[in-house]
Amino acid sequence: MSDEKKLGGLIAGSGRIVAFTGAGISAESGIPTYRGEGGVWHKYDPNVYANINCFLKDPTYYWNYYREVRYPLLKKARPNDAHLALARLEGEGKLSAVITQNVDGLHQEAGSRRVIELHGTTRRIYCMSCGVDYSMDGIFEMLKEKNPPTCTSCGGMLRPAVVFFGEQLPQGALNEAVEEARSCDLMLAIGSSLVVHPAASLPVYAKEGGARLAIINKGETPLDAIADLKIDDAAGAVLPAAL
Ligand code: APR
């Protein structure tokens, strides 16, 4: 039996599926992963570009990266067949949530309704002093004039609504994610190297709660040994085939 058929069987036999996704699910939408081949962190040191202390000390690095890399990628990216397959599973009443480490908003764009964003989102930027929200396009325009951009209402410092290294995950989202992981009967871990904690502990909680675990990831992960099924292939091909 092919791996896709095996995955299809697991999905058919489950009533409460939870997907846990990482950068690999958006790779086929043109957004590079962090650690895989061509990964963002090979070119941009995360201690400079994604660390809260560095950002607070000198936000210009982040905003340069935003202007030159992040914004153009996000503007172009569209959900791929893997995002769409998960939205379809939710629509059929089989999938209760997508827990994602991604900050690209592509699950919502694909039509997923219950998306738990553990690392926040790059689609929202806000003022750290007065809380006013800015759109991605608005910030991109501001960056043409000045770096770092500042709040047009109060002059305060702006930041993206992402979780930087050195910050806690949002407690509410983490609690919901743990609850979903513990109560599902099948977890699909998709496109994540499963090395960044506490997020990467969620598949372990799912197993401890009695769920089966299927990992769909190009490349090895530290949790392959506890998976009921591991498919080392592209999510955008595997998920639609399994459905
Ligand atoms: N289908 C499935 N897997 C893929 C695909 C694909 N089309 N393309 C790449 N992959 C795999 C890569 O081989 C890699 O193992 O997806 C994985 C992505 O791993 P990471 O780059 O480590 O991304 P992720 O696990 O989401 O990282 C977690 O780390 O830097 C932080 O905050 C960042 O949320 C991120 C977190």
Description:
Helix 1 (about 5-10) crosses helix 12 (about 235-240) and helix 7 (about 80-90) runs parallel beside helix 12 (about 235-240). The protein has helices spanning about 5-10, 25, 40-45, 45-50, 50-55, 60-75, 80-90, 105-110, 135-145, 170-185, 200-210, 235-240; strands at about 15-20, 95-100, 115, 120-125, 135, 160, 185-190, 210-215, 230. The protein is elongated and about 60 Å long. The chain is α/β, with parallel strands linked by helices. The mean pLDDT is about 95. The two termini are about 15 Å apart. It contains twelve helices and nine strands. The protein folds into two domains: about 1-30 and about 80-120 and about 170-243, TPP-binding domain (Rossmann fold); about 35-75 and about 120-160, 2-Layer Sandwich (SIR2/SIRT2 'Small Domain'). The protein has a six-stranded parallel sheet with strand order 3-2-1-7-8-9, sandwiched between helices. A three-stranded antiparallel sheet has the order 5-4-6. Helix 11 (about 200-210) links the parallel strand 7 (about 185-190) and strand 8 (about 210-215). The site of adenosine-5-diphosphoribose (APR) has 23 residues, from helix 2 and helix 12. Adenosine-5-diphosphoribose (APR) binds next to helix 2 and helix 12.
